[in-house]
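Project channel, design review

CF: Before we commit to the Fusobacterium necrogenes constructs, I'd like one complete example in the thread so the newer folks can see what an input/output pair looks like. Taking UDP-N-acetylenolpyruvoylglucosamine reductase.
RD: sounds good, go ahead.
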Amino acid sequence: MKILENHNMRNYSNMKIGGIAKRFIIVEDKSELKEIYEKYGNIFLIGNGTNTLIDEGNLDITFVSLKELNSIEELKEGVIRVGAGLDFNKLIAFMNKNDYSGLENLAGIPGSIGGLVYMNGGAYGSEIFDCIKEIEVFDENYEIRSLKKNEIKFSYRNTEIQEKKWIIISATFEFKRGFNLEKVKEIQILRESKQPLDKPNLGSTFKNPVGDFSARLISEAGLKGTRIGGAEISSKHPNFIINHGNATFEDILKILALVKKKINSMYGINLEEEIVILKNNK
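CF: and here is what came back for UDP-N-acetylenolpyruvoylglucosamine reductase:
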């Protein structure tokens, strides 16, 4: 493992906000996890930081990264085991090269395999669990074990992995033949036209309430373009909050609070964040 003391976390969040970590540990072998979790407290597992808002200042937190656990292994035709640290779009590229299909609707989502499986990430009617066959986890007893898909509880943007605070080490997928490149290109164009990808952001900020869309509610509430400090509710996609370059952690929290209060007062709906908010222990 590699241990970096007093490490700046700003570039580990897509929002480009973050303070100085007590330590940052890069895992080089899954067997190291037991030692890390037995030795250190207040640990936060950081993926690609694509949906993680990190507090500022000196952080009494030990960050752990699995970015070097990024292998792709074909166990048999259509059955692929992938390390949790692999960038998701590298899996899409592998699928394209080897003519495997099943996750094209998710193409373009920034994030690691572990992060997307952890929250059952999805887009355009598909979820990553659609193709999951098995996952390997480091559990609350500091043991490594494998679980079949039917042994895992999961739902919209939620899994029991979150609730039990397990760490995903790898995921095994089962794919069909016939990669749909045209679908991927179509989705890429759609993302670029509808999402503010030119500014730091954390993707969809709020989960969609049952039977509705957060973006629609925020737009109808007249909140598009609302700005607090350096943070703004995107006019291009109102469920995205963007950083104009000088936004602070508190700016983002104030925007979140404003949206939740307004939507609750207008519609009686309590929006729930899809992003992860990491506050320092004070």
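RD: helpful, thanks. The chain has a mean pLDDT of 95.
CF: The radius of gyration is 19 Å.
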